[in-house]
Amino acid sequence: MQITQTKIQFPDITLQTRDAHKLRGYFGNLFKENSPLLHNHYTDGKARYAYPLVQYKVIDNMPVLVGFQEGGELLVSLFLKIKEIDIEGNQFQVQAKNISQNKVDLSVNKQLFNYTFKTLWMGLNQDNHRKYIQLNEQTKTEFLNRQLQNNILSFYKGLSFRTPERIMAVSRLKEKQTRFKDHTMIAFSGSFASNALIPELAGIGKAVSRGFGTVSLMK
Fold first, then answer.
1. What local confidence, expressed as pLDDT, does residue 30 receive?
2. Taking the CB of the first residue and of the last residue of the chain, which one, N or C, has fewer CB atoms within 10 A?
3. Which DSSP symbol is given to 39?
4. Which residues make Cβ contacts (< 8 Å) with residue 158, sequence separation at least 6?
5. pLDDT for position 104
6. What angle do CA 161, 212, 5 make, to 5 degrees?
7. Which of 178, 123, 165 is CA-nearest to residue 131?
8. Using CA atoms, how far apart are residues 208 and 119, in angstroms rounded to an integer?
9. Residues in the chain with pLDDT < 50?
10. What share of the chain is helix, strand, coil (3-state, %, to 5)?
11. How far are the Cα atoms of 25, 96, 112, 179 from residue 29, in angstroms, in the given order?
């Protein structure tokens, strides 16, 4: 299956990885009348519980907006309106911005693809976090492999792609800590191999609209 992916990059602006959620807050507020896809909330305040089709990231200190399908078309329509970025009162004038739109494949293959996480992966929810911390090291790895499989499957479902093939994932991860909504959370850096084809800079796991779990294909 092919889907449309859109990326907007701001090469002259330097931010920290942790600023991704501020990026989301800024654009979500700036264009709040345009679509709930920008901030995943409807006009009545209810949350949109679906895979985020617009994602805000800071990759190698550069702000990046990534959109899929109608989320990408929305970014195209707003591209010319982006004149500045305000991060908690710090205003960055947009001197340069690049936009690209491509058809990308979603598929499950016999070959393995090697990926690295460009940002921390949050693969544990409240329930499986409790299970995870009680496991030994080997069992933790197996547990995380299953979570990766589930996350990739959720990503595919969020883009209406169904596959009869079994998704496999083998991880090489390091446990980290991160702050999320004023709480300290377990997250992971590292890499993994999978037979699932994932578009460059797509997010998997929790909080992908805020930049977590950004995947890059290893060359």
1. 82
2. C
3. T
4. 50, 51, 53
5. 97
6. 40
7. 123
8. 10
9. 42
10. 30, 40, 35
11. 6, 22, 40, 22
pLDDT recorded at residue 180: 77
- Closest by alpha carbon to 59, among 218, 219, 215? 215
Nearest-angstrom CA–CA distance, 20 and 28: 12
Residue at token pair 């996480």: 117
What's this model's pTM, rounded to 2 decimal places? 0.91
Residue 215 to residue 148: CA distance in whole angstroms:
12
Count the residues in the chain.
219
Two tokens, residue 19? 């600023």
Residue 93, pLDDT score? 95
Q: So what's the pLDDT on residue 44?
A: 54
Q: Please report the beta strands in 145-201, taking only residues with DSSP state E, as ranges in sequence order.
A: 169-180, 183-197
Q: For 20, what's the count of Cα atoms within 13 Å in the CB-facing half-sphere?
A: 29
Q: What is the largest CA-CA distance in the chain?
A: 52
Report how far residue 144's alpha carbon sits from residue 49's, in angstroms, rounded to the nearest whole number.
Answer: 23
* Pairs from 75-79 (Cβ < 8 Å, separation ≥ 24): 75/6, 75/8, 75/99, 76/6, 76/101, 77/34, 78/31, 78/34, 79/8
Q: Which helix (H) or strand (E) holds 101?
A: strand 98-105
Q: How far apart are CA 142 and CA 140, in angstroms?
A: 5
